[in-house]
Amino acid sequence: MQTATGVAKAESPLDPVRISHSLPPFPAVALKALNIIAGTEVSLRQLCDVISVDAAFSAEILRISNSPLIAFSTPVISVLQASILLGFRRLRNVAITVGLRSYLNGSTSPVLRASWRHSLACAIVAEKIARPSCVERDFAYTAGIMHDIGRVALASLLPQPYVRVLELARSQPQSVLRIERDLCGIDHCAAGFALVTAWKLPEQFADITLHHHDPFPSDTNAIPVLQRSCRIADALGFAAVPHGSPHAYQQILAECNEDLQKALPEDPAVLASEIDSQIAVIESA
């Protein structure tokens, strides 16, 4: 069957049930942190205890806590010490970031690497512009990390078809969801919704994953913040779907109100370098 993309429709398209059963569960520590973000948990000690019983996760938290990204003046030698020095909110964000990194399991796939870098860039930008947009900074950061989890699912379960998705989307980036449905049977927004629903994450994350490509204003204030963050990440070279005509950074900045403009550097190279540095620290083994 030929589709609007001019290629045959996937013979075995994915569906939400298959997606949720075919991928491993998200790391327990990260799920705990995500539920804390939504206000269903309140104890720093609870999160600290969950991290401490996972040796690999604890090692990652300590590595990042001792990295230039955090730059404490004293060596951090325990998760409890890290939790005290980082504070509740920052530890939460680090745990979620490490969770997504470990979920990718060291993949060398260019598609997954681009998705990871785009998500992290979006998270960093979203955190910067959250406050002047009247959105809670931690939720904005987490929305950036999690919004494209459906793309990770599609690229993991259908690697070859998804490479073709990217090839077609380079020349028609606004049609990426339709191309995904043609070649994969489902788009990454619906795939992300299926995952966060299967993982029993709070409703806020289902809304973010399902609606972050919606063309109209959303009732969820975080979505416009995320959409602007995605445009900025793309303009700085952190696009999940590379294409030839990203919005110029200065153009995006000009569309923002004065408070948003003050939250971002005028020089795109400054922000791009900051994002690159943070990604490098998180990626280093």
Question: Any overview of this molecule?
Answer:
The protein has 285 residues and is mainly alpha-helical. The protein has a domain at 16-25 and 108-283: Hypothetical protein af1432 (Orthogonal Bundle), CATH 1.10.3210. Helices cover 65% and strands 0% of the residues. It has helices spanning 16-22, 28-37, 44-52, 55-65, 79-86, 88-104, 110-130, 137-146, 149-157, 159-169, 176-184, 188-198, 203-211, 222-235, 249-255, 258-263, 268-283. Helix 7 (110-130) packs antiparallel against helix 9. The longest helix is centred in the middle third of the chain and has 21 residues, at 110-130. It is globular. It starts with 15 loop residues before the first helix and ends with a helix.
Q: Count of helices?
A: 17
Rg calculated over all Cα atoms:
19 Å
Percentage of residues in strands: under 5%
Shape assignment: globular
CATH superfamily of the domain at 16-25 and 108-283: Hypothetical protein af1432
- The SS-based structural class is mainly alpha
Mean pLDDT: 85
Straight-line distance between termini: 45 Å
**Helix content estimate:** 55-70%
For the record, the CATH architecture of the domain at 16-25 and 108-283 stands as Orthogonal Bundle
The CATH class of the domain at 16-25 and 108-283 turns out to be Mainly Alpha
CATH topology of the domain at 16-25 and 108-283: Hypothetical protein af1432
